[in-house]
Task: structure prediction
Amino acid sequence: MKAKSQGRPPESLKGGREKPFVRESSEELLFDVLKEGLFWAALGRPSEVMPFLRGKLLGNGFSPKAKEELQWLLDQLERYYDHVSRAGVVEEKHLRAVKSFYRDIVVVLSMGRA
Result:
């Protein structure tokens, strides 16, 4: 007699620790959004992605200290996008700066779960 598996989610969909591939793709998405913000800034709209970033990063169950650090990083990022907006062009140095912001945000995210 076979055991019925109806009503149970497949093993890959069960809760528990976050799967590595999910985290990796989330971090990749974060970097893509940061780069998109850079290009919006060069087009004269430096705050275009900021509401999305603030909503996703600050509303996700992080510790108060992590939220404070994320808020500071996002404020700095917005100022940087303003700087790029005044330049009106994206240069390699701007991409390097965004990579730095990305690394800083990922560090806070990885350490800041409540």
DSSP finds four helices and no strands in the chain. The CA atoms of residues 4 and 10 lie 12 Å apart.
